[in-house]
């Protein structure tokens, strides 16, 4: 019988379920975005967890029905157990535990960042060892991946994450939440060199990032401008996006050189950014480094990546019991020998 893995992801404001087959790839994937947060300009944790409670069970039913899958026939269940919003994580985790308890199907708790990294495995076999640039709303890291389950942090942000910078700048410009896609849209037709925004830690010689100075520089610039006309918003968006993408590129180039990497994977919501992909492709290819990324729906939060990660954990014999807990913070850890 075909081995199928169920993935559940509720770490932030997206409720997602998916079925993954190691042979066929993603069988079904459904993500329900929560739109209730838009009017608050950011994710409201209490609203997020209540919304997961309403959405998760019907979403699970849909995915199982569309995949033609019965619970007891699953080879494993993967669930994001951290990092993220505790209330949100607990909805997915409790649900996954109940499914595992009721059916006897093995359960694996998945680190959200490892899920983002393994989203690349949904596009084909990974070329390893590799370097991964994780750029999401909560994380910005360069990670050396020797094998699936073996990770070493090469650089991290010292303050804001790249996605957080997009979101905060989007808010300053009065653009809809989340800021990343809004800024990318507004930047089209804008002048990338209209404003010379700072590239944090550019000359540090290290692979760490800093985005809080950029956010402040954009705020000061916006406050000094007579009016936020659509043209000005376009120019600020294009210039700020360029500053973010440029420093992500510079640090990736540095890390690739230091580590002798041949392949760089992009992961996380910001990896959906077209300008980031374009510049990475152009500049890294010139140095002989291959750049790969997941399709946009697997860059942002999704359960397909969690189901795929569960396959790797469970087939390697790494499973969790019902004592599995959630965690709000904490870096990725290696689990494979
Ligand atoms: O990975 P993700 O869905 O959730 C977290 O784990 O945080 O990432 C969400 C982040 C948000 O900050 C959002 O603004 C950003 O990814 N993002 C983008 C784009 N699409 C999503 N940033 C830049 N360009 C995009 N196209
Ligand atoms: Zn994420």
Structural overview:
With 337 residues, this protein is α/β, with parallel strands linked by helices. 41% of the residues lie in helices and 19% in strands. The chain has helices at residues 45-67, 86-103, 112-118, 162-172, 179-187, 212-224, 230-259, 274-285, 296-299, 304-315, and strands spanning 5-9, 14-21, 25-33, 76-82, 107-111, 130-135, 140-147, 150-156, 263-267, 290-292. The chain has a 5-stranded mixed beta sheet, sandwiched between helices. Strands 8-7-6-9-10 form a 5-stranded mixed beta sheet, with helices on both faces. A hairpin with a 4-residue loop joins strand 6 (130-135) and strand 7. Helix 1 (45-67) packs parallel to helix 2 (86-103), helix 4 crosses helix 5 and helix 7 runs parallel beside helix 8. The longest helix is centred in the last third of the chain and has 30 residues, at 230-259. It is globular. The model has no long low-confidence stretch (mean pLDDT 96). The structure holds 5'-O-[(R)-(carboxyoxy)(hydroxy)phosphoryl]adenosine and zinc ion. The site of zinc ion has 5 residues, from helix 3.
Q: How much helix, percentage-wise, in residues?
A: 40-55%
Spatial strand sequence of the major β-sheet = 3-2-1-4-5
Distance between the termini: 29 Å
Q: Write down the secondary-structure element order.
A: EEEHEHEHEEEHHHHEHEHH
Helix/strand structural class = alpha/beta
Shape: globular
Which small-molecule ligands are present, each listed once? Answer: 5'-O-[(R)-(carboxyoxy)(hydroxy)phosphoryl]adenosine, zinc ion
Question: What's the mean pLDDT score?
Answer: 96
Largest sheet: 5 strands, mixed
Counted by DSSP, the helix tally is: 10
Strand content of the residues, in percent? Answer: 15-25%
**DSSP strand count:** 10
Calculate Rg over CA atoms.
20 Å
Task: Indicate the low-confidence ranges by residue numbers.
Answer: none
The oligomeric status of these chains comes to: single chain
């Amino acid at each position: 019988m075909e081995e199928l893995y169920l993935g559940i992801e509720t770490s932030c404001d997206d409720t997602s379920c998916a079925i993954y087959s190691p042979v066929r790839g993603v069988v079904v994937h459904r993500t329900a975005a929560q739109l209730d947060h838009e009017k608050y300009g950011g994710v409201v944790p209490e609203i997020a967890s209540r919304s997961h409670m309403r959405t998760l069970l019907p979403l699970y039913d849909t995915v199982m029905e569309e995949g033609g899958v019965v619970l007891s026939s699953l080879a494993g269940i993967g669930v994001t157990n951290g990092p993220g919003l505790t209330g949100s994580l607990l909805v997915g985790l409790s649900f996954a535990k109940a499914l595992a308890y009721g059916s006897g199907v093995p359960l694996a708790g998945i680190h959200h960042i490892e899920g983002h990294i393994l989203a690349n495995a949904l596009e084909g076999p990974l070329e390893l060892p590799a370097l991964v640039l994780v750029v999401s709303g909560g994380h910005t890291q360069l990670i050396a991946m020797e094998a699936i389950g073996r990770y070493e942090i090469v650089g991290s942000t010292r303050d804001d994450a790249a996605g957080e910078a997009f979101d905060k700048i989007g808010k300053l410009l009065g653009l809809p939440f989340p800021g990343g896609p809004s800024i990318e849209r507004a930047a089209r037709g804008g002048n990338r060199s209209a404003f010379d925004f700072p590239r944090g830690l550019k000359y540090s010689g290290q692979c760490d990032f800093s985005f809080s100075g950029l956010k402040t520089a954009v705020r000061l610039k916006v406050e000094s401008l007579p009016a936020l006309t659509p043209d000005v918003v376009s120019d600020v968006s294009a210039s700020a996006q360029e500053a973010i993408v440029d420093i992500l590129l510079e640090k990736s180039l540095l890390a690739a050189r230091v580590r002798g990497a041949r392949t760089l994977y992009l992961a996380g919501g910001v990896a959906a950014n077209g300008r980031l992909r374009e510049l990475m492709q152009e500049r890294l290819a010139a140095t002989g480094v291959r750049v790969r990324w997941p399709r946009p729906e697997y860059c942002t939060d999704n359960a397909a990546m969690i189901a795929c990660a569960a396959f790797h954990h469970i087939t390697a014999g790494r499973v969790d019991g019902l004592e599995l807990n959630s965690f709000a913070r904490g870096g990725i850890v290696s689990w494979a020998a």
